[in-house]
Specification:
Elements lengths: L1 E7 L9 E2 L2 E2 H19 L3 E5 L9 H11 L3 E8 L6 E6 L6 H19 L3 E7 L2 H4 L5 E8 L3 H7 L2 H19 L14 E9 L2 H13 L5 E7 L2 E11 L2 H13 L5 E5 L2
Parallel strand pairs: 1-4, 1-5, 5-8, 6-7
Antiparallel strand pairs: 2-3, 6-8, 9-11, 9-12, 10-11
C-alpha cells in the first residue's frame, strides 16, 4: 500500500497568486480532487489523503503535521506559478538530509513524466527551503503548474480539460515513480463498488452534520438516499472503491477515530 498525501496549495484566507480572474487556491484544489479520484479509481494498493477538501484556511504546520501523523509515503504539494513566465517546474528541499538522493530520484521521474505528457516548457528541477518540503518526514515534491499571470496559460486553466490533463499527468508521474499497478479494465456488468457507510439517518440534517464532522477530520463524503421497508434513510458515504481492500482500510481508519461504519457492495 502506497500512502500519498496531496496538498492543494493555499486556501481560505490565503488565495495564493491571482490574475486573469483566477485564484491559485481554487485551481490547486480542483487539480488535487481530480488527482485523488484518478488514483483511487485506477490504481491498486493506493491510499490518498488531502490536506484540504474545500476552501478552508489551514497553516503549513497543520498540513505537514497531518502528513507526518498519517505516516504518508509521499507528499505532493500542488501550486500554480506567477511572476512572468510559462511552463512547469518542481522543487525538493534544498537542505542536507539523508533521503535527499532518493527524494530527487522520485521527483525527477515525476517531473519528466509531467513535462513529456503535457508537452510543457521545462523550467527545470529546482531546490528551495519551502516548509512543505522541509518539515515533512517523508519524501516530498512541490509542483508549479503554469503561470496564472500568463494570459495564454490562464485561459486554459479556466477549462475542465486543463484540470483533468494536469491531474492525469501527475497520476502518471506517481505511477512511474512508485511503480503503481493499474486496475484491470472491467466490463460494466462486472463492476462492483464497495462503499464505506459512516452513518445512516432518517433526517437529512443529521446526515449533513455527520458530513461536516468528517470534513473537519479530513474526509470527503456524500449523501446517498437508501430505501428499506418503505422508509427513507440518508447514508453518509466516505469513499467508493473498486478494491475491497481499500474500502476495508478506509473503514479501519474511521473506526480508529471513533466512527461506526460498515461496507456496502453495490453495482452501478
Amino acid at each position: 500500500m502506497v500512502k500519498i498525501f496531496i496538498d492543494p496549495g493555499h486556501g481560505g484566507g490565503d488565495p495564493g497568486a491571482s490574475a486573469n480572474g483566477l485564484l491559485e487556491k481554487d485551481i490547486t484544489l480542483k487539480i488535487a480532487l481530480q488527482l485523488r479520484k484518478m488514483l483511487q479509481e485506477n490504481y491498486k494498493d493506493t491510499e490518498v489523503r488531502l490536506s484540504r477538501i474545500n476552501d478552508e484556511t489551514k497553516s503549513l504546520t497543520q498540513r505537514t503535521d497531518e502528513a507526518n501523523r498519517w505516516n504518508a509515503d509521499y507528499l505532493l504539494s500542488v501550486h500554480i506559478n506567477a511572476g512572468g513566465g510559462e511552463g512547469f517546474e518542481s522543487y525538493i528541499w534544498n537542505g542536507d538530509y539523508r533521503r535527499k538522493s532518493s527524494t530527487d530520484k522520485l521527483r525527477t521521474t515525476i517531473h519528466r513524466t509531467i513535462v513529456k505528457q503535457l508537452d510543457w516548457r521545462n523550467r527545470g528541477t529546482k531546490e528551495a527551503n519551502f516548509h512543505m518540503l522541509r518539515e515533512s518526514k517523508m519524501p516530498a515534491v512541490l509542483t508549479e503548474n503554469g503561470f496564472i499571470d500568463n494570459a495564454k496559460e490562464a485561459k486554459r486553466m479556466k477549462t475542465d480539460d486543463w484540470i483533468k490533463e494536469v491531474a492525469e499527468a501527475h497520476a502518471s508521474g506517481l505511477e512511474a515513480a512508485f511503480d503503481l499497478e493499474k486496475r484491470p479494465d472491467l466490463k460494466p456488468d462486472q463492476e462492483t463498488f464497495y462503499r464505506v457507510v459512516c452513518g445512516s439517518f432518517q433526517e437529512h440534517k443529521n446526515a449533513k452534520q455527520r458530513m461536516n464532522i468528517l470534513s473537519k477530520r479530513g474526509y470527503d463524503s456524500f449523501i446517498d438516499l437508501y430505501i428499506m421497508n418503505n422508509k427513507r434513510y440518508y447514508r453518509v458515504i466516505v469513499g467508493s472503491f473498486r478494491d475491497k481492500e481499500n474500502a476495508d482500510s478506509r473503514m479501519r481508519q474511521l473506526k480508529k477515530i471513533g466512527f461506526d461504519c460498515f461496507i456496502d457492495a453495490v453495482r452501478p
